[in-house]
Design brief:
Oligomer: heterotrimer
Distance between the termini of chain A: 33 Å
Shape of chain B: globular
Largest interface: B-C, 76 and 65 residues
Shape of chain A: globular
Order of helices and strands of chain B: HHHHHHHHHHH
Strand content of chain A: 5-15%
Chains: A alpha+beta, B mainly alpha, C mainly alpha
Helix content of chain A: 25-40%
Number of helices of chain A: 20
Largest sheet of chain B: none
Largest sheet of chain A: 4 strands, mixed
Radius of gyration of chain A: 24 Å
Strand content of chain B: under 5%
CATH class of the largest domain in chain A: Mainly Alpha
Helix content of chain B: 55-70%
Chain lengths: 571, 307, 118
């Protein structure tokens, strides 16, 4: 840990205190100075932290033992420096009554949605925020759901009723996202969604149109919000795993990995090699499956009817392998704390080899059918372009960032879960437009195939679960021979493991960008706080900036090229 | 009797075409298509018709009632009327008019206005946008559809479609008029809003465009009219450029049917294969490529005919 | 001459009857079920406000004007095309002059940017 030498310490010596977190250099900052510190880290420090990776909060009122200054709530800033390949976490202690911190929207445009989310979920005000409204919850919601005193289950909230008057009021409240245009005869306000075939789910975009030209676009999200972070606080460490699958519901096990890596970091579990390789193989299979869905639906958004059928057929092949290994298809819930649920079935390698031999021809055909089609190119080239600097400014990760020419891939830059043992390239493109994003994803499928081939060829032997007391579920073999083993097994299965107090963060290269889990443990059978940083959230926030001045058709192109999943935006 | 026979023939063909398209698309897209109702799913069309007939007869209260009902009727009637001038075979056809080609052009334009009217009368934003797109597309592609046919008129020296067919006894007009043929096919596709020219209803963008607010039988009219339109443009392509009923051995009507079916299949293949251009790209293509090409084609044809 | 067009009138009649029959049948067979939400224009599930008040972009009018120009020109071309062989080279030259003016017009609006959808 290089904390003592950290520039924050040098510059703000009196104010910065190193926290207990072991994973990321963490500092306590006064609310009054946070703006100054953020500006310093973004603009002034050498090799700056240019990306606001995440911004969230923790309600600390129920903590049993929390090192650091006394506080009721904590606002957490997570910054990323690409130059240093290093993160920094800043914590601001605030009271629970009328908490407030100065806004960071003037430093990062991407802070806007994050601050709205913290306001929505915790009731922390951001002084100077231009548009501090609820973002995930309906505008009529009472209370701030991620506060510990807000009920977590529907049964704690009374019977839900929606009489006509209330439905009317909700409808009326929804109109707050529409704005009375200055020139109402020229500008048409159009709701694209929530029920619209071009939005890939329940997303609402309020458009101000001049003819078909977009004057302004305002995404209204939250329709798919299921309170995943709140659920994390009531599930055991083990039983939360299936919920993660459904965050980016096309990514399947890719979601489980960052959660489990963070839990394993807290528990100090070293995962055996065979489990690592199985995890990586499944993740890359899911990356291909997810990209195939994107490929097909993107083509369909542009009016090509056929590709989606071919690509779903190939995705089905990937799912057959997943099914053979896990028993489930889209959301296997297969990884476990300390490894995976079971060893690979007999004959798995034949299935995977067959897939690896089958795909290259298909990908080449798709290339001719979609990527080389002149109409497709005319619709995507130059549409929704942004530069690397803009991407970093807005918190863009994944293919959207690599399409601007920056080869930043967490699998390479911060090898996790065993990726350092694999050979693969980071595909990039230069233009940063919709076509470039498509190119990168297509090239990524080839790389994923490479990784999968290496997995098949060099699958290590040995156990698939760590031999560790916190690995869950605990081994059953000795439970009926020995009373101590039986008790341990019973506790491990019924309560789940007790993960040591502390906090851990793990970010991975998910299918759509960087997916990160920031876990706070209070030394209990369930997490104290689960923060899920998803890639689609900042990507969606960038939409207005890259779609103004274009046409409605281009908006559909951009939506398709971003490759978001609304469950990933709303959680 | 002839009008009735032609009408029945056209409607039956269009109904069969709905089935054929679904089966062909399914074939090309590695799936089954309708295969449960009747042999090979042939009765699917009948089932669909019954379903649509028993749907609610719905005129939205916010719509312009008269126009809302008129629009689908207009689209359907003009599509059917166009067949009046199509010479199926010697002796088979409704009228042998000496202005047949002009009549066809007039009906096509009228039908396209039905679509614009539908978008306008619906009084709904997506419909309106679809209607506007439709209007602009119609105007642009109408402008050179007539031009693309002038070459044929010069070669045949007549607007009578029978005369035009007979004038192709030596060589099909597709040979001297390949450019005219291509521009006509493009304009025809645009006139009947088939992919890649289905911008007025582009589902990923405008949900269903001009017919967003339509349901039941009124929607069915647009739907059937589209297939009648495909049949019409296919038949016209066969008549104008591929010698209509002319052909060896087989009876004339069979040749006409085969040629028409070929174009129908081609249009379905286009739908399976192509993405959709953007609205401004479509307009630019019409004004900057197709229109000058049609003009040039006309002059070249003129010079060749004289020399 | 007019007798020739009687089948056309018959066809018009039959097509009209067909459409009206279908509409009537559907109105008899279909059930009626009015709900308040059904009475709202579709706008992706949101309440719709003000579709009627919006004027189409001026580009649409421009397209309409261009269309009038070029379609009227097509109207001039038809009689010329049909009498083409009898007009001979003189006809071609005349029409060439006409089309050149027209092409210049197209070039002009092109350069003026009237064909750009901006």
């Amino acid at each position: 840990m290089e904390a003592p030498a950290h520039p924050i310490v040098q510059r703000f010596a009196a104010r910065a205190v190193a926290d207990e977190a072991r994973d990321v250099p963490t500092f306590w900052i006064d609310a009054a100075r946070i703006h100054e510190v953020l500006t310093f880290l973004k603009d002034e420090v050498e090799r700056p932290y240019r990306m606001l990776y995440d911004l969230t909060a923790i309600d600390e009122r129920m903590r049993r033992a929390a090192p650091g200054p006394p506080r009721e709530m904590t606002v957490v800033y997570h910054l990323l420096s690409l130059e240093r390949n290093q993160d920094v976490r800043l914590k601001v202690a605030v009271p629970s009554e009328a908490p407030a911190v100065p806004t960071a929207t003037d430093i990062w445009p991407s802070a806007s949605w994050y601050e709205r989310e913290v306001w929505d979920m915790f009731g922390v005000k951001f002084d100077g925020h231009p548009d501090l409204r609820r973002i995930l919850m309906p505008p009529t919601w009472r209370g701030h759901p991620l506060r510990k005193d807000h009920p977590a289950r529907a049964t704690e909230m009374g019977v839900f009723e929606l009489p006509d008057e209330r439905a009317q009021a909700e409808e009326e409240a929804m109109r707050s996202a529409e704005r009375e245009p200055t020139d109402s005869t020229r500008i048409l306000t159009l709701n694209l969604g929530p029920q619209h075939p071009g939005t890939h789910g329940v997303l609402r975009i309020v458009l101000d149109l001049d003819g078909e030209r977009i004057v302004d676009a305002r995404p209204d999200i939250g329709f798919h919000h299921r309170g995943a972070e709140k659920m994390g606080e009531r599930q055991s460490w083990h039983t939360f795993i299936p919920y993660t699958d459904r965050i980016d519901y096309l990514g399947g096990v890719v979601n489980e990995l960052p959660y489990l890596l963070a839990v394993e970091a807290l528990a100090g579990i070293e995962v055996p090699d065979r489990a690592k390789v199985i995890r990586i193989m499944l993740c890359e299979l899911f990356r291909i499956a997810s990209h195939l869905v994107w490929y097909g639906t993107f083509a369909q958004d542009l009016g090509a009817l056929s590709p989606v059928f071919y690509m779903f057929t190939d995705r089905e092949r990937a799912f057959q392998i997943v099914e053979a290994i896990c028993g489930a298809r889209m959301h296997p819930g297969w990884f476990r704390i300390g490894g995976v649920a079971q060893d690979l079935p007999r004959g798995w390698d034949g299935l995977v080899r067959e897939f690896c031999e089958h795909m290259p021809d298909r990908l080449r055909e798709y290339d001719r059918m979609v990527m080389k089609n002149p109409i497709f190119q005319a619709r995507t080239r130059g549409i929704g372009a942004y530069t690397t600097a803009q991407a970093i400014e807005w918190g863009v990760t994944g293919p959207g960032l690599r399409a601007t020419g920056l080869g930043w891939d967490f699998r390479k830059k911060r090898p996790y879960g065993g990726y350092d043992h694999f050979e693969f390239d980071i595909p990039t493109a230069a233009a940063g437009d919709s076509y470039a994003r498509a190119e990168v994803r297509v090239a990524e499928m080839w790389q994923s195939l490479r990784i999968i081939e290496q997995c098949v060829n060099d699958m290590p032997g040995g156990p698939v679960k760590a031999d560790h007391p916190l690995a869950t579920p605990p081994p059953k073999e000795r439970a009926l021979h020995d009373i101590e083993a039986l008790i341990t097994h019973f506790l491990g299965v019924s309560w789940g493991p007790v993960i040591p107090a502390g906090e851990a963060f793990c970010g991975v290269e998910a299918t759509k960008g960087s997916n990160g889990y920031y876990l706070v443990s209070d030394g209990d059978v369930h997490p104290y706080r689960v923060r899920i940083r998803t890639p689609s959230f900042p990507h969606m926030q960038m939409l207005p900036a890259i779609s103004r001045g274009l046409m409605v058709s281009d908006l559909v192109t951009i939506l398709g090229s971003i490759d978001f999943v609304l469950a990933d935006v709303d959680r | 009797m002839m009008p009735l026979a032609i009408l029945l023939g056209v409607v039956t063909f269009a109904g069969g075409l709905v089935w054929a398209e679904r089966r062909l698309l399914a074939l090309w897209q590695d799936r089954y298509g309708p295969n449960r109702v009747g042999p090979f799913g042939l009765l699917q069309v009948v089932a669909d018709a019954i379903k649509l007939l028993t749907k609610e007869d719905w005129v939205p209260p916010f719509a312009d009632r008269a126009l809302f009902v008129l629009a689908p009727a207009l689209v359907m009637v003009t599509a059917l009327l166009s067949f009046a001038v199509v010479p199926v075979a010697p002796g088979i056809g409704v009228v042998g008019s000496n202005v047949g080609l002009l009549f066809f052009l007039a009906m096509t334009s009228m039908g396209a206005w039905g679509v614009v009217l539908a978008g306008w009368a619906s009084n709904s934003k997506y419909s309106l946008l679809g209607g506007l797109r439709s209007a602009a597309q119609l105007l642009t592609y109408e402008a050179f559809m007539g031009l693309s046919l002038c070459g044929v008129v010069i070669l045949a020296g007549s607007f009578d479609l029978r005369e035009i067919v007979l004038a192709q006894r030596r060589v099909w007009f597709v040979v001297p008029q390949i450019v005219g043929c291509l521009t006509f096919l493009v304009a025809g596709l645009a006139a009947i809003h088939r992919l890649p020219f289905d911008l007025p209803e582009a589902e990923a963008e405008l949900v269903a465009g001009y017919h967003s607010e339509y349901s039941g039988m009124k929607f069915a009219m647009f739907f059937v009219a589209e297939y009648v339109g495909i049949t019409l443009i296919s038949a016209l392509s066969a008549v104008l450029f591929f010698g209509g009923w002319l052909g060896p051995v087989l009876p004339p009507i069979v040749w006409f049917f085969l040629k028409t079916s070929f174009f129908v299949g081609f249009f379905i293949l286009l739908r399976a294969a192509l993405p959709r251009p953007r609205f401004d790209q479509l307009m630019a293509f019409g004004w900057k490529v197709m229109l000058p090409v049609s003009l040039a084609n006309l002059l070249v044809t003129g010079a060749i005919v004289l020399s | 001459m007019t007798a020739q067009y009687i089948p056309l009138v018959v066809l018009l009649g039959v097509a009209g009857v067909l459409v009206v029959t279908f509409f009537l049948l559907s109105s008899i067979l279909g059930k009626k079920n009015m709900t308040p939400t059904k009475a709202m224009p579709y706008e992706s599930g949101m309440e719709s406000h003000g579709a009627a008040g919006v004027r189409p972009s001026v580009k649409f009018y421009l397209t309409a004007i261009l269309f009038v120009v070029f379609d009227v020109e097509a109207v001039f071309l038809y009689p010329w095309a049909i009498e083409y062989r009898s007009l001979g080279w003189a006809g071609l030259v005349m029409m060439l002059g006409f089309l050149v003016v027209l092409a210049l017009g197209l070039l002009y609006v092109w350069k003026k940017g009237a064909l750009e959808w901006e």
